[in-house]
């Protein structure tokens, strides 16, 4: 937990790091209230692969992960769609389709993030258990985790899906999620929000004992 403060000056000085957030996580796959004080995340946007490789090989932060963590998981993502802002910034520049022009047919990652208005906190957290149950019941959801910058008011979710069709089935066919989205819009729950979709390019390590993208990606990474 102390490194949520101590790592910030190091990250600010890291070359090629365009945007970053240190994040706490919820318990297990749940996106409801609750915290796992042993599990933390770094979301980072890099200028290029070389800057990322320099960080992984030379920075004291990933060196400490290798030394102290009982489990690590690392995924590289290419953004394909993004709308909204994160603290006033648009962090993800979507990439175009691949060189063959064909739509992506493999696994998809989704990040949602919101700053919840104080007057809407109670309504928001009353709505999350039903959406969480629906998410975990989705056959095409490979993994999910709740994330947070601040306790309670600035929340995010990260999820991995078998394909884009599974994401659409959850977003539009699931009643619980659809009803919450309607209430968010009708009652202006968020002061800021962001939704981004990514193509997972490579992964390494384990998340709760396994790599959820194992056998789905053509470019596995060496263990970080």
Describe the structure.
The chain has six helices and seven strands; from the N terminus they run αββααββαββααβ. The protein is of the alpha+beta class. The chain has one domain: 2-Layer Sandwich (Alpha-Beta Plaits), CATH 3.30.70. The protein has a seven-stranded antiparallel sheet with strand order 2-1-5-6-4-7-3. The two termini are 21 Å apart. The model has no long low-confidence stretch (mean pLDDT 86).
Brief summary of the model shown:
It contains 6 helices and 7 strands; from the N terminus they run αββααββαββααβ.
Q: What descriptive keywords fit this protein?
A:
single chain, 224 residues, Alpha-Beta Plaits, alpha+beta, globular, monooxygenase activity, monooxygenase, Spheroidene monooxygenase, oxidoreductase, 7-stranded antiparallel β-sheet
Strand order of the largest sheet: 2-1-5-6-4-7-3
- Helix tally? 6
Major sheet: size, sense and barrel closure?
7 strands, antiparallel
Count the strands? 7
The level-1 CATH class: Alpha Beta
Shape: globular
Class derived from helix and strand content: alpha+beta
Give the terminus-to-terminus CA distance: 21 Å
Mean pLDDT over all positions: 86
> Strand-and-helix sequence, N→C?
HEEHHEEHEEHHE
Q: Any idea what the CATH architecture is? A: 2-Layer Sandwich
> Can you tell me the number of structural domains?
1
Organism: Microbispora rosea
Protein name: Spheroidene monooxygenase
GO molecular function, one term: monooxygenase activity
InterPro entries: CrtA-like
